[in-house]
Design brief:
single chain, 4-stranded antiparallel beta sheet, 10-stranded mixed beta sheet, elongated
Length: 228
């Protein structure tokens, strides 16, 4: 992993369900498309810095998709990273490893939920945990959803949010869980990974929300509402 920390973000576009959104890429950011995530990127006008994958899901999209990839590979081969189909790393994990190696410590994942197989969604939730365990912060983003992992820390949400927020323990036990500024609050409670006590909380529009875990790892899921 690079010892130089990059002041920017690594945007990863995977091959799951994708609602077209504007992906904000600034100078210093780095974009990686994973397999058929290349098509999602193309559909929103983004040319990724790297396209990573074994390209099994891209091949399912037809000859035109493969032809587009081959054209890029022919004209700009350094933009393509081909992986073996038989591998331990998912395409998304490999993209994260590349981002970490380049020095990025903030990751935004798009197209990381849904798709044909629920196991890919679970794998990408575990990927958030992988990112956090490697000293970085990761967010799965959709047009109306966000998922993140908190480990021995406090996560804050500014005023003005509306919608649902749920908190789950990824570790066996998460201790010292404090929830403030939401419809249902908790003071130094304990969450476990076998009982969904923290499901379906709600934002209060004019309140700042705060979630703390003193010892353990939480998965936080947010469903934003436009009804403000």
């Amino acid at each position: 992993m690079s010892s130089e920390i990059i002041d920017g973000k690594c945007v990863i576009i995977s091959a799951g369900d994708f609602y077209p959104v504007e992906i904000d890429l600034e100078e210093g950011d780095f974009c990686i498309a994973c397999d058929a995530g290349f098509l999602h990127a193309r559909n929103v006008g983004v040319l990724p810095d790297l396209i990573v994958g074994d390209f099994d899901s891209l091949s399912e999209q037809g000859e035109m998709a493969i032809r587009d990839l081959m054209e890029i590979e022919e004209n700009d081969p350094d933009r393509i990273v081909r992986l073996n189909v038989k591998k331990d790393d998912t395409d998304t994990i490999m993209a994260v490893k590349i981002g970490l190696e380049k020095g990025y410590r903030k990751f935004f994942l798009y197209g990381a939920l849904g798709g044909k197989r629920v196991d890919h969604t679970i794998a990408n939730i575990q990927t958030l945990n992988f990112i956090r365990n490697h000293g970085a912060k990761g967010y799965i983003m959709e047009h109306d959803k966000m998922l993140l992992v908190a480990h021995n820390e406090t996560v804050k949400f500014h005023r003005g949010n509306s919608g649902y927020i749920s908190v789950f323990s990824l570790s066996d036990i998460s201790k010292g869980v404090t929830i403030k500024g939401l419809m249902y609050n908790l003071e130094r409670g304990t969450l476990t990974n076998d009982f969904p006590l923290g499901v379906s909380n709600e934002f209060i529009i004019d309140e700042e929300a705060e979630i703390t875990v003193e010892e353990g790892t939480l998965l936080i899921t947010v469903y934003f509402s436009d009804e403000i």
